Amino acid sequence: MSSYSKASNGEEQQQLVCVTGAGGFIGSWVVKELLLRGYRVRGTARDPADSKNAHLLALEGAKERLTLCRADVLDFDSLRAAFTGCHGVFHVASPVSNDPELVPVAVEGTRNVISAAADEGVRRVVFTSSYGAVHMDPNRSPDAILDETCWSDYDFCKQTDNLYCCAKMMAEITATEEAARRGLQLAVVVPCMTMGPMLQQTLNFSSNHVARYLMGTKRSYPNAVAAYVDVRDVARAHVLAFERPEARGRYLCIGTVLHRAQLIAMLRELFPQYPVTAKCEDDGKPMAKPYRFSNQRVKDLGMEFTPLKKSLYEAVVSMQKKGHLPVIREQQRAYL
């Protein structure tokens, strides 16, 4: 599939696609990637005129091929209006929070998106899930390979107050069921902890996570492992999943799995002049071991992953430029 489609008069025209939550960390990069590939893009926002969406209008190709429209996932009519004439929809919008209200909102919002897309004749939807819907299972063997067949344990997520994971699980299941019912093609991208440079001005969750370790404001780091991926890779995965006609189902988007100590060591090596958090929360347990995972399905679509060190470096530089981090110069070492 290319960014062009045949018009009724036989002429080729650039495909129109819609991105929900266009102004967010991942949404912004999806918009940028689509514009670079020649698509006409309609981005949804609760308030398109808000200055927090200004960065989208400054993207290359935005002047000619990007429009922002007002839509809310709980307002069905606003979604139908946003999807009119679209060949595809990227449903990226999702709040990152642990609010108990998030589960019904995520489920209802997703049902609305799929239903509105089907009503408007959209052929293909790419849905952004989260590895919170995949890896939270205390009964998974440490030797097991995390892949697209894995699901989090809903009851465990609920008991441990991981309501964001509950919301993403239920939203993904809803998207899958509704798409099958309405005859829509659906591909699901499952990103993990997403790192890298910000396009938007406001600080997002994962960038803030890096900033707090870099500045030492987080006093200690946990004896835990996590999966990481570059935000640009996540955006590329969305577009690859849209452009490959055979792409269906889940695509785990993980670049690497590291112990938090390795992430901290990387930050300290890149930015020795910063007061990087140095202390591990000693929970008395042996060091958590990184688990094995498979990202083969997304690689089969043509995906290549960015090294985490590059993502971290560019994340910090972008936060410095946007005024979220002080610029601390590395002192010249005195040679005797």
From TrEMBL:
The keyword Oxidoreductase applies. The lineage of its organism: Eukaryota, Viridiplantae, Streptophyta, Embryophyta, Tracheophyta. It comes from the Eukaryota. Residues 17-248 form the NAD-dependent epimerase/dehydratase domain. Keywords: Oxidoreductase. GO terms for biological process: lignin biosynthetic process. This is NAD-dependent epimerase/dehydratase domain-containing protein. GO terms for molecular function: oxidoreductase activity, acting on the CH-OH group of donors, NAD or NADP as acceptor. Pfam families: Epimerase. It comes from Setaria viridis (Green bristlegrass). Signal peptide: none annotated.
